[in-house]
Amino acid sequence: MLRPEKMTRVVVVGAIDSLGVTIERLYELGVLHLIDFTTQDDDFKIGQPLPRASAASQKLLKLRAMIRSLEIDEHKPSERLQVREIEDKLDQALVTMDLNISGKVESKQKIQALIREKDAEIRALEPFASFGLSVGDFKEYGNVAVFVGICRTDPEGTILQKAGDHELFKAENPGGFAVALFARMESQVDVGRILADHGFQEVKLPDVDGKIDEIVARNRREIKEVEGDLRRIEAELDDSRRHFADLIVASEEHLAIEVKKAETPLHIATSAHSFVMDGWMPSARAKEIHDGLDRTCCGLAFVEALPEEKEDEPPVKLRNPYIMKPFEFFLSLVSTPKYKEVDPTFMLFITFPLFFGFMIGDLGFGAGLFLLGLTLRLKFKESPDLSRLGSIILAGGLVASIFGLFVFAEAFGVPFHPPAEVHDEYSWESVANIPIHPVLDKMHDIKELLAISILAGWLHLTVGFSLGFINHFGHNSKHAFAKVAWLLILFGMFAEMMLIAGNAAWTSEFVNSTVLAPLPDITTAIAGITVSIPAVVFILVGVVALPFTEGAMALSEVVGLFTNLVSYTRLAALAVGKGAMALAFNSMLLPLVFDSGNVAFIVLGALALFVTQMFFVFFLGALSAGIQAIRLNYVEFFLKFFEGGGTDFEPLSYERKHSIAETRKQEA
Amino acid sequence: MDIGTGLALLGAGVAIGVAGLGTGVAQGQVGAAAVGATAENPKMFGKGMILMVLPETIVILGFVVAFLLMNAE
Questions:
Q1: What is the reported pTM?
Q2: B46 and A333 in contact by Cβ < 8 A?
């Protein structure tokens, strides 16, 4: 939490003969984040791939071609294959597959191409089949212009009137009028214009000989014949697919891993007799890798920890408790924090569900979101992003239900009890008497909601600036103290807002009598607005300190900080907006369901209620609440301290889904 | 309700309405570019979102003015 996993800079050195074994062992341990070797000199050069790389790549290429032609990219083998089995079978299988599959795939492609070609001919010629002409008849003549194509409207009448000497063939088709028009060369331009008026589109006839209707019939016959062949080949390919798919997919995975391992030397330094790998690993596992290499490489490779240097940028492996892990998803959408930065996942874990829950604040919708999140989490274990998103929605839904139950006392936009202001509003009282009364009413306590939002904003931003102070403290004290200046300005603004709010809301009253109580009560009025002198002093001290710490440009952002604080009123706005939307649909449709007495109206009303509630309130509400909750974190909060741009920790490792490597026999 | 209050309320409406329009125009343009950038590189989502919400300052200030007007009796 707060800090990523501690890393140690290490070099792994050894005799060149043990390179293969060392790489193998490192991949199994999965702890070394390699730093690419780039600066070659006379002694050290970039390594050569291990000898087995080229053979493995060739096989891999063949397998991938096979996967494409058999269309089994999505295939999931029913069971995992042993690596030993793959290695035993693969060479033999590749020969068999070459014989069985490659030829057939080629024939299949040829047949498909032939069918496409014949089909295109049919489509071009068919509209003109009824003319009883040959394709040759449409060739260019010396004195006769030929127009072949499709008109959108019937051109016959106009042509009779205006085209002069001509011969017209016409057939009506679903797509328009197929037209073949022979006219004198002199009137070519005029005729072209007449046809254009009728939406004429020229059709380029294929280069074949013979009568059109005969060609069409012949093509149809031919297609039918080769389709039989195609079906046979498909069936045979299906057979091969059934037979080989598991092996192909598992082998592809295995060989991809082999190639990855064999090409690792391309990232490390080698000399004639030795190799040097430079990298990072979690400090906690340093001993494990030390012992592991010692044992397997028979003392031919060693790992050595280096002292940390100031300009080092270690890779970042976030370290958060299990329940906070899903919230790292939000961080992955922005940037990985730097190694020395605070990891804000824990704040996302706290504030996102709170903000989201406050905006939704409804037992029914909250429970729905909880279930939606749970489903996503359980159903999409394979997709880490969806599963993490599911967990986040689940947490948000849970907090929304709690808010809905204890604070707003409503479910599906209907309150447990009618509000004091509107006695005849629909409520759950007609179903059950729930002994919980609302602390806040979305429709009537708007000022209270606004004050709570501002308070939440002040707390959130204060944490943001404090984290910024922690990030800069120790290596840039000027920037660290700028955060203190910002905190002062923020406090001044907050105090002034609370003063203006005064006793209009319970929250502001509470804040004024506790947090702000020590401030001397000196005020003056400017343009009819009460201004607290201590608040102004706080702001001024901060503003004066800014140019000396962060630079004069920072002054332009003072107004920005004010808008940041007011920006949190979106929490209230969304809560009220969503509540109002649900109320509007309910008050329009509930009377239809309960008071109309007409079965058709009841059914229609219930259906409309379901659709509007589901779509407008549930999905759109959840979507906008989610976006606003994360945006308050990304924009208002993160910009106060977060820089990002760290490197993800990507150790040498692999993941097997379709194959199993035998566990290495542990040496005694 | 006297005419002064009416005018103040009208002013509040204009303040937030026109500020909202301004923000909308600006966000439309930034948003279109941000979506394009995100489509090319999903890592741009965070940056795009931050740029996208910058014009919101306008409507927030509009809201503040409207709020002050509504409470200035």
A1: 0.78
A2: yes
